[in-house]
């Protein structure tokens, strides 16, 4: 028969605050029994896992620097590592946008989904359209003039 260790160890249980004696043995360590003694040792192991330092967290980590100094920006601009035709903040000449231009309502300034075929005014919804229908010719020309689309008759 294997020798039993007669030495008893005092273990503190976090839930009860009392000490329980656990007798470790070779047979008990090889067989996992669900006795109260093994539950107490499991909760102690679980408690110790919460205190283990986590190696994946770097204490010296800091977020990367977002802003660069003027000296760095000017040095980067001097290096011709990009195409000459690409627009930069110093080069105003750039190709026209690929995206279609946004159209805004001539009355409200909101996104214009519709255009009145009679007057050419852009409008946002039916309520604005009712307002446009009541406008005179001079008012329509004034609204069109605000976006440089007025028709000048001579």
From TrEMBL:
Transmembrane intervals: none
Could you mention a single GO BP entry for this protein? chromatin remodeling
Entry keyword set: Nucleus, Transcription, Transcription regulation
Keyword Lipid metabolism on this protein? no
Its cellular-component GO annotations read: Ino80 complex
Region annotated Disordered, chain positions = 1-40
Q: Major place of localization?
A: nucleus
Q: Which domain of life is it from?
A: Eukaryota
The record's listing under Pfam families reads: YL1_C
Write out the annotated subcellular location. Answer: Nucleus
Query: Which ranges are annotated Polar residues under compositional bias?
Result: 16-40
The Vps72/YL1 C-terminal domain covers which part of the protein? 103-132
Q: What is the protein name stated in its UniProt record?
A: Vps72/YL1 C-terminal domain-containing protein
Organism of origin? Umbelopsis vinacea
């Amino acid at each position: 028969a294997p020798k039993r260790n007669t030495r008893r160890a005092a273990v503190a249980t976090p839930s009860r605050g009392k000490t329980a004696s656990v007798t470790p043995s070779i047979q008990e360590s090889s067989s996992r029994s669900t006795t109260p003694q093994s539950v107490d040792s499991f909760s102690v192991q679980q408690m110790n896992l919460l205190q283990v330092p986590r190696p994946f967290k770097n204490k010296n980590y800091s977020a990367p620097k977002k802003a660069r100094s003027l000296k760095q920006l000017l040095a980067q601009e001097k290096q011709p590592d990009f195409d000459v035709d690409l627009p930069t903040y110093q080069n105003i000449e750039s190709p026209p946008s690929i995206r279609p231009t946004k159209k805004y309502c001539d009355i409200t300034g909101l996104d214009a989904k519709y255009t009145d075929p009679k007057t050419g005014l852009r409008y946002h919804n039916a309520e604005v359209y009712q307002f446009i229908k009541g406008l005179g010719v001079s008012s329509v020309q004034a609204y069109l003039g605000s976006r440089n689309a007025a028709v000048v008759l001579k």
